[in-house]
């Protein structure tokens, strides 16, 4: 079994060494062809009015799909085009204002020839991610993101391992650089990624809260028997107390009622039972922030307010049902 761990550690070390070599070529202030090409790539994509088309065959194709997906989810319009399908009609998916990034370790992938020719014919910028400095792909490209020499982790077959890892990381570097260039925020990301746990965490309070028309609200002078009826009718375990200006001045919860229960309580006004200056949250806050408040304060609901006026109510179940963590 220890031999298995030794092999696994060897793979990690070999691929990590490849990434270190890649990182050395991207060191700020260093005169590196890769660094210069990286900057040119960013400028070319920013200047484009179309999409980034990422392509590759085999394992490079899998990496290309991931790069396209990462670019798209971070605000850069991008698509993957299969080079084999491109030769049978999908070349039409590549527009005249697009930028093409082609991945090929050797730079001699035959399936890329039609895409290379198409880019040349219509003046579409072609960017290569390759280890083949003198390859057909490199010679045909406008920009070459040349991977540094590195040992593949699979020495027996030289199957792409380290090179695909370097290509993937280089694609991530492009996506993150473009993201920060356009000041892309977590809220922007949620627009492109509404599903899954990450998307749920980035949802806003306004996406999950109960609307103003469905809020349990009472005046400070409302008798407690009427307050209890309001809490029961809405089934949210609380009621907001608003003054004559519509400002939230207090909250009464099921727990408050239990703590104040007495024979005289039902005839008392809400202001005598309510918790003053309640914790609230803004509608544009992240739902994850709201859930943290709910958990840390051991409460089940938050009134959502704008300038102290309630516009919604967020219950802990709203967050949990939406998958917010």
The order of strands across the largest sheet is 2-1-3-4-5
Roughly how many Å apart are the termini?
Answer: 37 Å
Order of helices and strands: HHEHEHEHEHEHHHHEEHEEHEEHEEH
Number of helices: 14
Q: Largest sheet, described in full?
A: 5 strands, parallel
What is the radius of gyration computed over CA atoms, rounded to a whole number of angstroms? Answer: 29 Å
Task: Indicate the mean pLDDT.
Answer: 90
> How many E-type strands?
13
Query: Which structural category do the helix and sheet elements fall into?
Result: alpha/beta
Report the uncertain regions. none
Portion in strands: 15-25%
Quick recap of the structure?
The protein has helices spanning 2-24, 33-47, 59-73, 83-86, 113-122, 136-140, 162-181, 186-192, 196-201, 205-208, 224-234, 254-260, 287-297, 316-321; strands spanning 52-56, 78-80, 99-103, 126-130, 143-146, 210-211, 217-218, 238-242, 248-253, 275-276, 280-281, 301-306, 309-315. With 325 residues, the chain is α/β, with parallel strands linked by helices.
